[in-house]
TrEMBL record:
Native species: Gossypium tomentosum (Hawaiian cotton)
Residue numbers bearing the N6-(pyridoxal phosphate)lysine modification: K251
InterPro entries reported for this sequence: Aminotransferase_I/II_large, NHTrfase_class1_PyrdxlP-BS, PyrdxlP-dep_Trfase, PyrdxlP-dep_Trfase_major, PyrdxlP-dep_Trfase_small, TyrNic_aminoTrfase
GO cellular component: cytosol
CC cofactor: pyridoxal 5'-phosphate
Classification via Gene3D superfamilies: Aspartate Aminotransferase, domain 1, Type I PLP-dependent aspartate aminotransferase-like (Major domain)
PANTHER family, per the entry: AMINOTRANSFERASE TAT2 ISOFORM X1-RELATED (PTHR45744:SF19), TYROSINE AMINOTRANSFERASE (PTHR45744)
Family: Belongs to the class-I pyridoxal-phosphate-dependent aminotransferase family.
Aminotransferase class I/classII large domain mapped to chain residues: 43-395
Domain of life, source organism: Eukaryota
UniProt keyword Cell cycle present: no
Lineage: Eukaryota, Viridiplantae, Streptophyta, Embryophyta, Tracheophyta
Descriptive protein name: Aminotransferase class I/classII large domain-containing protein
MF-aspect GO terms: L-tyrosine-2-oxoglutarate transaminase activity; pyridoxal phosphate binding
């Protein structure tokens, strides 16, 4: 019989619980828990960027054939190198070089398990005692969750809806101090559907250079644009400021479950090498997991042989969906959306930038209540933005002396 008086020395890691609470997945679990088990209608999952759940989105036959060829070759059944299979790294460099004024090499590429792991690597590599990072508001909450776990202090700068969700550059300079190490730019925007111009990104790069900080450019939705502005990679400005560019095949090829991403040191001046960031990136990957080797083996064929008509079809479908969603929101009195999305998959897949006027609704207390009842009554899953905001504010301290979110 177990001794009930025994004092066990272990307990759960509260930092994980707190970090999870401010994640999209954590809040989505709350909403999904309200689905009615008696409702026979299919669930409409609009809570995260996974278009593969919809029949109108399917990856290219080129990508599917590349996976089959990689498996049949029997060349990719073993462990991959820490930084990724060399052929995959070369192919990713060549793919990104199409848009850059200088040439990346395989040595600039680190293959990751999706873009989420690229975020983990980037935040771990730049962290040091007392450091802080500048994050956009609204933004992708995984950055907050991971920063909280890393004890990396967060400072938020606002995106300006009246200016197409551009960065409030003046606010960046006011927020930064001697402990600021980086700024995160998400382009095309998650969750706002914004697409930044060359001039605006150059302004951000010059501001970061002035402050002596690097730029983490989250470009997982790169080239998924359907408005008047084209996609401009932040790496173009690598000669102005060091850039850690993050991406993956998840969104453009509609395969988020394949978990193949990359972190790129867009830094022709070699500053990231001299500062030890490159060594830290490799150090993290040495104690982390890898994406499946056979998917890395398929990457050259996927990146080099996918035809433009596949991408065009995805863009047309995204634009149609975004237009319908935006027009539908305008017909609902309690909802307002400041700007039609021009890129990524957002507003289409959740309504983080849509404002909810609960005074026009009966028996709805806030946006979380709205989302839970929408799930229960209509089997539609969306993300409650204000709830995420409130959770961020609550998760302020993991230790007595460590302020995490400000």
């Amino acid at each position: 019989m177990e001794n009930s008086s025994k004092q066990w020395r272990f307990e759960g890691n509260k930092r994980l619980n707190s970090a999870s609470a401010i994640s999209v997945r954590g809040v989505l679990d709350l909403v999904i828990g309200n689905l009615s088990t008696d409702d026979l209608r299919p669930t409409i999952p609009l809570g995260n960027g996974d278009p593969s759940q919809f029949a109108c989105f399917r990856t290219s036959t080129t990508a599917e054939e590349a996976i089959v060829d990689a498996v049949h070759s029997a060349k990719y059944n073993g462990y991959a190198p820490t930084v990724g299979v060399l052929s995959a790294r070369r192919a990713i460099a060549n793919y990104l070089n199409r848009d850059l004024p200088y040439k990346l090499s395989a040595d600039d590429i680190y293959v990751t398990s999706g873009c989420l792991q690229a975020i983990e690597v980037a935040l771990a590599a730049i962290n040091r005692p007392g450091a802080n990072i500048l994050l956009p508001r609204p933004g992708f909450t995984f950055y907050e969750s991971r920063a909280a776990y890393e004890h990396l202090q967060v400072r938020h700068f606002d995106l300006l809806p009246a200016r197409g969700w551009e960065v409030d550059v003046d606010a960046i300079e006011a927020l930064a101090d001697d402990n600021t190490v980086a700024i995160v730019i998400i382009n095309p925007g998650n969750p706002c559907g914004s697409v930044y111009s060359y001039d605006h990104l150059k302004m951000v790069a010059e501001t970061a250079r002035k402050l002596g900080i690097l730029v983490i450019a989250d470009e997982v939705y790169g080239h998924l644009t359907f408005g008047s502005a084209p996609f401009v990679p932040m790496g173009i400005f690598g000669s102005i400021v060091p850039v850690l560019s993050l991406g993956s095949i998840s969104k453009r090829w509609v395969v988020p479950g394949w978990r193949l991403g990359w972190l790129v040191t867009s830094d022709p001046n070699g500053i990231l090498q001299k500062s030890g960031i490159v060594e830290s990136i490799t150090g993290f990957l040495n104690i982390s997991t890898d994406p499946a080797t056979f998917i890395q083996g398929a990457i050259p064929q996927i990146l080099e042989n996918t035809k433009d008509d596949f991408f065009s079809k995805v863009i047309v479908t995204l634009k149609e969906a975004a237009d319908k969603c935006f027009d539908g929101i305008r017909e609902v009195p309690c909802l307002t959306c400041p700007k039609k999305p021009e890129g990524s998959m957002f507003v289409m897949l959740h309504i983080l930038q849509v404002k909810l006027n609960v005074s026009l609704l009966e028996d709805i207390s806030d946006d979380l209540d709205f989302c839970m009842k929408l799930a229960k009554e209509e089997s539609v899953i969306i993300v409650p933005a204000e709830q995420l905001k409130e959770l961020r504010l609550k998760v302020m301290d993991f230790d007595d002396h460590d302020s995490v979110l400000v």
